[in-house]
Write a structure and sequence with these properties.
Mean pLDDT: 89
Protein name: Wall-associated receptor kinase
Radius of gyration: 27 Å
Order of helices and strands: HEEEEEEEEEEEEEEEEHEHEEEEEEH
Largest sheet: 5 strands, antiparallel
Number of strands: 23
Keywords: Disulfide bond, EGF-like domain, Kinase, Receptor, Repeat, Signal, Transferase
Strand content: 25-35%
Signal peptide: 1-21
Low-confidence stretches: 338-342
Subcellular location: Membrane
InterPro entries: EGF, EGF-like_Ca-bd_dom, EGF-type_Asp/Asn_hydroxyl_site, EGF_Ca-bd_CS, NOTCH1_EGF-like, WAK_GUB
CATH topology of the largest domain: Jelly Rolls
Distance between the termini: 41 Å
CATH architecture of the largest domain: Sandwich
Bound molecules: 2-acetamido-2-deoxy-beta-D-glucopyranose
Number of domains: 3
Strand order of the largest sheet: 8-7-16-11-14
Amino acid sequence: MTTVWRMMLLLLLQLLWQASASTARIAREGCPERCGDVEVPYPFGMGDGCFLQGFDVTCNSSFNPPKPFPGNGNIEALSISLDGHMKVNHFIAHDCYDKNGVRTQSNRPSIDLSQKPYKFSDARNKFVGIGCDAQAYVVDHDGKFATGCGSLCNNMSYVINGTCSGIGCCETSVPKGLRAFDIWLWSYSNHSGCWSFSPCSYAFLADLSFEFNASMFLSYDKVESLPVTLEWAVGNKTCEEARNDKDFACVAEHSECYNSTNGQGYRCNCSQGYEGNPYLEGGCQDVNECEDEAKNQCLYQCQNTQGSYSCVCQKGMKGDGRKDGTRCSSELPYLQMGLGTS
Ligand SMILES: *[C@@H]1O[C@H](CO)[C@@H](O)[C@H](O)[C@H]1NC(C)=O
Ligand SMILES: *[C@@H]1O[C@H](CO)[C@@H](O)[C@H](O)[C@H]1NC(C)=O
Ligand SMILES: *[C@@H]1O[C@H](CO)[C@@H](O)[C@H](O)[C@H]1NC(C)=O
Ligand SMILES: *[C@@H]1O[C@H](CO)[C@@H](O)[C@H](O)[C@H]1NC(C)=O
Ligand SMILES: *[C@@H]1O[C@H](CO)[C@@H](O)[C@H](O)[C@H]1NC(C)=O
Ligand SMILES: *[C@@H]1O[C@H](CO)[C@@H](O)[C@H](O)[C@H]1NC(C)=O
Ligand SMILES: *[C@@H]1O[C@H](CO)[C@@H](O)[C@H](O)[C@H]1NC(C)=O
Ligand SMILES: *[C@@H]1O[C@H](CO)[C@@H](O)[C@H](O)[C@H]1NC(C)=O
């Protein structure tokens, strides 16, 4: 082949690759891919035939931009990720008093995801209580358990910003598999010992990165919800049990199944060297490692292959062409390696 032909062939291959890449879908064919600013990848979906059972999303366009609500609930999705996570806005509990110790504001957020394929992530959330007369609890709907923490302080000078150790702020970890619970919040003495600087208590699930500071004592009565992370999984079987079902969800070629680490169910992932949506037929596509220097180890020339890539040295040079391998040299590879390490 002449060089010109070779170049034209390369160009053609590149065009073909780009064409296939640009058709990569995240939703089922004919289904909307986003609601407002939020991408909605399959198995989630909006409209008949667009979602896997349990993963329906309602796009409410009375908001501008429109907002997605998984499972027709009242929890807004902020982002949905194919790695099994979903950020949502979750309500926070308030408990406020006036200076006579009379309660002025109180609510008990309650949530029930028990019929849904998602649960609160134990790995990415914590439970937080804020205030100087706060007893904050997560209480399981079935009455199986309650967990929580308390915070008491009678002088603002004891409160340390940035730490959450029971003086102004307390925290505890989230149990695995958490799906249906109420948040309870009460006080020992109606905030009478701390009312001037802490008239309210708050309790909520928050991202692990949440950091307390004392300005929240007064500003959080305006905060209604905070982002928390849910984990989703398909069904209630392990990969091995589900693999032979006719509705097994890892349908893409080059996809793999892995068990959820937070309760029942499984998820899918594209195999190494492939990317895309493993829940769709043809959803996992080859990664062209040669297009991105960070994805390959080639010194001189890179050739993409299905699921991988290989490196080539200049004409007349020897070696595997890899920065982490025998590199390229005009000598025998082992001599080059000897020189390189001396
Ligand atoms: C959309 O949101 C509005 C405001 O919260 C609510 O009144 C309405 O019922 C929602 N519509 C749907 C279809 O859920
Ligand atoms: C809070 O502590 C500071 C410093 O220890 C003290 O000066 C102040 O009087 C205390 N305030 C109250 C309300 O006890
Ligand atoms: C708190 O307030 C309630 C009613 O508002 C009252 O019955 C109770 O005695 C108060 N408790 C304390 C410790 O002040
Ligand atoms: C305290 O927290 C609030 C609310 O998250 C934030 O806006 C503010 O910047 C924080 N202040 C400091 C000093 O970190
Ligand atoms: C903590 O943060 C609040 C609000 O940002 C500030 O008013 C207070 O002085 C800070 N306290 C300390 C001990 O740094
Ligand atoms: C698993 O899910 C199926 C279908 O949703 C349901 O009928 C079954 O009771 C579930 N099994 C368990 C152990 O939760
Ligand atoms: C899934 O979990 C089951 C039961 O715990 C285990 O036997 C199996 O090896 C796991 N499969 C994968 C792919 O991790
Ligand atoms: C999914 O695949 C990607 C790319 O191969 C890999 O980086 C990631 O660790 C995999 N995730 C799991 C949970 O196996």
